[in-house]
Structure formats: structure tokens, C-alpha cells
From TrEMBL, chain A:
It holds the Pfam family TctA. This is Transporter. Signal peptide: none annotated. The keyword Transmembrane helix applies. Coiled coil: none annotated. Residues 22-437 form the DUF112 domain.
UniProtKB/TrEMBL annotation, chain B:
Residues 25-176 form the DUF1468 domain. The keyword Phosphoprotein does not apply. InterPro entries: DUF1468 (IPR009936). Keywords: Membrane, Transmembrane, Transmembrane helix. This is Tripartite tricarboxylate transporter TctB family protein. It comes from Neoroseomonas terrae. It holds the Pfam family TctB. The keyword Transmembrane helix applies. The chain crosses the membrane at residues 21-41, 61-80, 101-132, 152-172.
Length: 498, 176
């Protein structure tokens, strides 16, 4: 009953002062950003953070949550119509979405995408509302030793599972951690790697780095490849069919649970959630042969999984100050900019904030379904904007986004540098999620390692003997061992034999 | 037998980098890691303040430098095992791709690094958008070029003025 009262309080708090207006425009921008190939949810949340500087924390969070939810959903539009995922999260949706569109069922595919995405976010939001408050209370037992392991676990799990090569994932994670050490440290205010430069002594701003890695690098990548081909403009009814939902309720529940769980794991994100949900649905399906050729179940699984991941990724942000995905990392940075302090103390200082986030997610989900039904043809036109006209505008917005937070030209140079480095690392197939997580978690790891050592007088045993620490340490070691080729296959073989 | 995992339709994009590229990357990262360790070692220890030296600013970056260097050695050894020492990797992308990339990069640096802060922001943005669009649409051929150039100019002016109005007047942010 308390939870319901808190939720009602959350809605009452959020719904005021033009909240619906903000939700409408922010979700629309999110959907457009997500739909346009080359613009990602992370970039969208980072750029829109700039616009929220002048707003109060509540409105700012509502806007950013709406952009996040909208962008993850919007990616499916181009996945279905262009066979190009608007965001990496929608890559799995191309497998069955585009074949459905080619069969003349683009509208039905978008209906499935809308219903799957809506239910996925709703499912994940319910899990957030149910478990985040109690997990937040549990997290209050975490001290410096435990927070050190949480941060390290985030880097290791993101490196292992964020797609591609785990070795490069780890290197990307540690490069991110290194970036976070630039500037004054907390104990002695010593400026590390500053070389007498006042700007460097202040550290590299998270937002300029993220805008560079996700914005500038995206612009460079988009301009290098071939242009996107035009789509069929013939679309059937987009109204979701009840039967498509009722027939696949097991897939929806499974994908919702998987998506939320993967979201809650630090640094994995929506693309992993979509692929895992898709693979699980394929394994469990009686019609496996249809997967990849226009399976409704496959599309439903991918869409539900990626959208359930959004609230899932916010759970560790609120309870541990550890982001579950790259867009959630930017959302967390925005929370800090607006004076909100996510993490274990949230359960004591502002416990009602969790329910306000729940209310924001539900509002964003509702607005998303409205646009999913009403905004089909205008989105088609937007998808056809040539990249030579869109990308320079995106670059201008990146420049504004990097500059606006502290009004330093130095941040524009940081954005350019991060963009070039990010582009090169991508070309060399280094995953970006561990890099971002490293930058975000760097301070947490640094501070807690040193604080822990000071508290124990230089004794490292508390890192390995405290009950929660030892559990987190074991998890980190298992995650690291999993990515070692020989050991990983041994685990998998034993599981298969069992 | 378990069903194989769903395959990404973007295998081409996710194809591993060539062993030669990995080898060069590993060498660069190893030098970088060692440089970080060296710099971290030279940082003050503040033993007088802390008593133990455990709060020395160089401990954490030094640890990261060691890990980066070690991981890059593993990457390099793997690249050598895959033939990175002997086989030269093919240059990635076509000449046209590389030209487009260079054009985008140069225009971006000239705009963000050279014009922003020196030229009024709306004008710098308008000129950048116009130059960028025109450069990339030039190769579409002479037919309709004048129309495309005029449209690029209009998009540029629209972007410059639009960004100024939205960010400065509506959201009250300072522009460069």
C-alpha cells in the first residue's frame, strides 16, 4: 500500500507545470533521434542535457527520461523501413522487421514494435518500482570496499559482454578509467596529467567527452559510408493487433524479464538486451524457421527486450550510482549536474525520487504509444533527409552541447579530441560502452580504493574478507574468467553436460 | 544440440580489425601504458600528510597504466599469433570513403576549432552547414546543382538563426 501511495505521490509531483507539454516534445525528439541512423540514444540524452540546464531538476529529468525512452523506441522505425537500425539497440529488430516490411506488412511490424516496446518499458518500470527501493536500502550497507568492487565489476562485465572482443573491451574500460584520473584528485588536490594547464587541471568534462565519442565520431562514421537507400512508402495499418500480443505473452514476459535484468547489469545496455531476448525467443519458439524471415515473435522479443532494458538500466543508477547502459550513464551525469545525488544515499535523502522516476517512465511510455500510432508518415519523411544535410546540423548541436555546460572553448577541443579518438577506436573495433563506463565510474573507483586503504591503514584484507565484498569480488572474478577463451568454453561445456 | 545464437546482420561492420592493425594498436597502447606508469611514478607521494603514502595521487593511474600495458601486450601477442607480423592488412574503405571522411573531419575542425569563438556563432554555423552540405552534394552532378547550393545556403542560415533563437532566447544558454 505504501508503494502505491508513493507512486501516486510521484505522479502528483511530476504532473504539474506543463509536464505533459515537456513529455510530448521530448519524446518526439527522442523518437526522431532514435529513428535517424547515425544518431544514438546516448547522443540524444547528452545533447538534450544542454537544453535542461535552465530547468528545475524534476522537469529536466522528465525531459531526459522521455528522450531516452523515445530514442530506444524510435530506432525500430529505420530498422523496419530501411533495414538500418536507428540505434545499435534496434539491430536485432532488422532481422524480422525488414522482411515483414518487404512482405508489405510494414504497418503491422511497426504495430508489433509499438506494442512490444510499450509493454517492455512497462514491465521494466514495474520491476524498478518493486525492487529499486528495497535494493537501495540494501545498498546502504555498501562501504568503500564494496563500492570499489561494484565499480570494478561494472568495468569487467561491460568489457566481457558488451559485444565483440572482451580483450578490447577491457582495454577500452581502462582507457576510460584513465581519462577519469585527469585533473585534480580529491585527497591532496594534486592536478594529475595537467602539465600546468588550468583547463586540464579542472578535468575533462563528462558531457564534452560523451558528445565527442558518440556525436562527432558518429558524424564521421556516417559521412564515410554509403548513403542510406530510400524505403517503400506504402504502409498498412499500424494499429497493434490484440492477437499479436496475446499469442506471444510468454515471449513478452520472458523478454521483459531478460531485458530488465540485462539493463540492471552495469554497462551492458539495450543492444545486448535485444539480442539476448531475440536468441532466447528463438530457442523457445515452435516456429524457429520463421526467425529472420519475418517472425512476429522475433520482432516482439527484440522490441520488448530493448525497451525493458531502459528502466532496468536506471535501477543501478538510482541505487548504486552505477549506470546500466551508455544512455543511463549520461542520465546519471545529468542527475549530478542538477544536484540530485543518485546512489545508496538516495534511499535516505530523497526516497520519493525513485517513484518520481517511475512516474516519468510511465508518462514517457504513454506518450510513446501515442506517437507510435499517430506519427508514421511524418517519420517516413524525416528518415529520408539526406545525411549531407542532417549531419552538419548534428555537428553544430554537438558543439553547442559541449560548450554550454561550463562555457569553456576548451570543452569544444575536448569534444573534438574525444571524437577523433572515439572514431579511431571504433574503427579498430573497440566497444564504446566500457569506455563510457570507465569514464563514469573512474571517480567512484579511485575515491573508494584510496578511502578504503586509508580506513584500513593500508591493509587490503577488508577488500576480500567483508561478506558483501567477497561476494562482489567473486562475481568480478567469474565475469573476468568467463571471457578467457579456455575457461569460458569450459564453463559452457559443463553447463551443457549438466 | 543448442540452437546457435542469432547472428548480427552487420557482420561486415563488426568484422575484427586486421591483425596488423591490432599489432600497431597494441604497440601504441603499450607505449601509452608505460608513459602513464612513468608519469604516475613521478607524482608526489604526500607521505608527510598521510603517514602511509597510501593516498599518493599516482597509485590509481599507475595501476591503470600497468593494466593497459599488460593488456596491450596480450593484444600484440594475439595479433602476432594471427599473422600480424607477416601479413599486411588491406587499407580499410575505398578512396572515396577516405576522401569523404577527410572532408568531414577538416570541415569539423575548421568550424569547431577555428571559427567558433572568433566569428559570431550563428554565422560560423551557417557557413559550416552550407560548406558541408555543398561539399558532399557537389558530386551528385551538375544537374540541379544550383538548386542544391541555394538549398544548402538556406539550410545553413536556418540552422544558424534557429540554433541561436532556441538555445539563447528560449533556453537562455550562452553560445560560444
Amino acid at each position: 500500500m505504501d508503494a502505491l501511495n508513493n507512486l501516486a505521490g510521484g505522479f502528483a509531483h511530476v504532473l504539474g507545470g506543463g509536464a505533459i507539454f515537456h513529455a510530448l516534445w521530448a519524446t518526439l525528439i527522442g523518437i526522431i533521434i532514435g529513428a535517424l541512423p547515425g544518431l544514438t540514444a546516448t547522443m540524444g540524452v547528452a545533447l538534450l542535457t544542454t537544453l535542461t540546464f535552465g530547468m528545475g531538476p524534476d522537469k529536466a529529468m522528465l525531459v531526459l527520461v522521455c528522450v531516452y525512452v523515445g530514442a530506444i523506441y524510435g530506432g525500430s522505425r529505420s530498422a523496419i523501413l530501411l533495414n538500418i537500425p536507428g540505434t545499435p539497440a534496434s539491430a536485432a529488430s532488422t532481422l524480422d522487421g525488414f522482411p515483414l516490411a518487404r512482405q508489405g506488412l510494414a504497418g503491422r511490424a511497426m504495430g508489433i514494435s509499438t506494442s512490444g516496446s510499450w509493454l517492455g518499458t512497462l514491465f521494466g518500470t514495474m520491476i524498478l518500482a518493486l525492487f529499486a527501493p528495497s535494493f537501495g536500502e540494501f545498498a546502504l550497507q555498501f562501504g568503500s570496499y564494496e563500492m570499489f568492487w561494484v565499480a570494478l565489476f561494472g568495468i569487467v562485465i561491460a568489457g566481457s559482454l558488451s559485444g565483440g572482443d572482451p580483450l578490447k573491451g577491457y582495454i577500452a574500460g581502462f582507457l576510460g578509467l584513465f581519462v577519469a584520473t585527469i585533473g585534480q584528485e580529491t585527497n591532496h588536490a594534486y592536478a594529475r596529467f595537467a602539465y600546468g594547464n588550468g583547463d586540464l587541471a579542472g578535468g575533462l568534462g563528462l558531457l564534452p567527452v560523451l558528445v565527442g565519442v558518440f556525436g562527432v565520431a558518429e558524424v564521421l562514421s556516417a559521412m564515410r559510408g554509403p548513403a542510406v537507400m530510400a524505403v517503400s512508402s506504402k504502409i498498412d495499418s499500424v494499429i497493434p493487433r490484440i492477437r499479436d500480443v496475446t499469442q506471444h505473452w510468454k515471449t513478452i514476459l520472458r523478454s521483459g524479464a531478460l531485458g530488465t535484468f540485462i539493463g540492471a547489469m552495469p554497462g551492458l545496455g539495450e543492444d545486448i538486451a535485444a539480442w539476448t531476448s531475440y536468441a532466447a525467443a528463438k530457442r523457445a519458439s515452435a516456429e524457429r524457421e520463421k526467425f529472420g524471415k519475418g517472425s512476429i515473435e522475433g520482432l516482439m522479443a527484440a522490441e520488448t527486450g530493448e525497451s525493458a532494458c531502459v528502466p532496468g538500466a536506471i535501477i543501478p543508477v538510482l541505487t548504486l550510482a552505477v549506470p546500466g547502459s551508455a544512455p543511463a550513464a549520461v542520465l546519471m551525469a545529468a542527475m549530478m549536474i542538477h544536484g540530485l545525488n543518485p546512489g545508496p544515499m538516495l534511499a535516505i535523502t530523497t526516497p520519493e525520487f525513485i517513484y518520481q522516476i517511475v512516474a516519468m517512465l510511465i508518462i514517457a511510455d504513454m506518450v510513446k504509444i501515442f506517437y507510435g500510432l499517430a506519427l508514421v508518415r511524418p517519420l517516413l519523411w524525416i528518415l529520408l533527409i539526406p545525411r549531407a544535410r542532417l549531419m552538419p546540423v548534428v555537428f553544430v548541436l554537438c558543439t553547442v552541447g559541449a560548450f554550454a555546460i561550463t562555457s569553456r572553448l576548451f570543452d569544444i577541443w575536448v569534444m573534438l579530441g574525444a571524437g577523433v579518438v572515439g572514431f579511431i577506436l571504433r574503427e579498430l573495433r573497440f566497444p564504446m560502452a566500457p569506455l563510457v563506463l570507465g569514464i563514469v565510474l573512474g571517480e567512484l573507483l579511485d575515491k573508494n580504493l584510496l578511502r578504503g586503504l586509508v580506513l584500513s591503514g593500508g591493509d587490503i584484507s577488508p577488500f576480500f574478507t567483508r561478506p558483501i565484498s567477497v561476494g562482489l569480488c567473486a562475481l568480478t572474478l567469474v565475469a573476468a574468467a568467463w571471457s578467457i577463451p579456455g575457461l569460458g568454453s569450459l564453463f559452457r561445456r559443463k553447463r551443457a553436460i549438466a | 544440440m543448442s540452437e546457435p545464437d542469432a547472428a548480427s546482420p552487420f557482420e561486415g561492420e563488426k568484422a575484427p580489425a586486421s591483425p596488423r592493425a591490432d599489432l600497431v594498436t597494441a604497440a601504441v597502447l603499450c607505449v601509452f601504458g608505460i608513459a602513464v606508469v612513468t608519469q604516475a611514478w613521478q607524482m608526489p607521494r604526500f607521505v608527510e600528510q598521510s603517514g602511509t603514502g597510501l593516498t599518493a595521487p599516482g597509485i590509481v593511474p599507475g595501476f591503470y597504466g600497468v593494466v593497459i600495458a599488460l593488456l596491450s601486450i596480450v593484444l600484440g601477442m594475439r595479433a602476432i599469433r594471427r599473422g600480424g607480423w607477416a601479413v599486411r592488412g588491406a587499407a580499410q574503405g575505398s578512396a572515396a570513403d577516405r576522401r569523404q571522411l577527410a572532408t568531414a573531419a577538416v570541415l569539423g575542425v575548421v568550424y569547431a576549432g577555428g571559427m567558433v569563438g572568433r566569428v559570431p556563432f550563428w554565422l560560423a554555423s551557417a557557413l559550416f552547414v552550407f560548406a558541408f552540405t555543398t561539399a558532399f552534394e557537389w558530386e551528385l552532378g551538375p544537374q540541379g546543382r544550383l538548386r542544391r547550393v541555394i538549398e544548402a545556403a538556406l539550410i545553413g542560415i536556418g540552422t544558424g538563426i534557429g540554433v541561436m533563437l532556441v538555445f539563447e532566447k528560449l533556453f537562455l544558454l550562452r553560445l560560444p
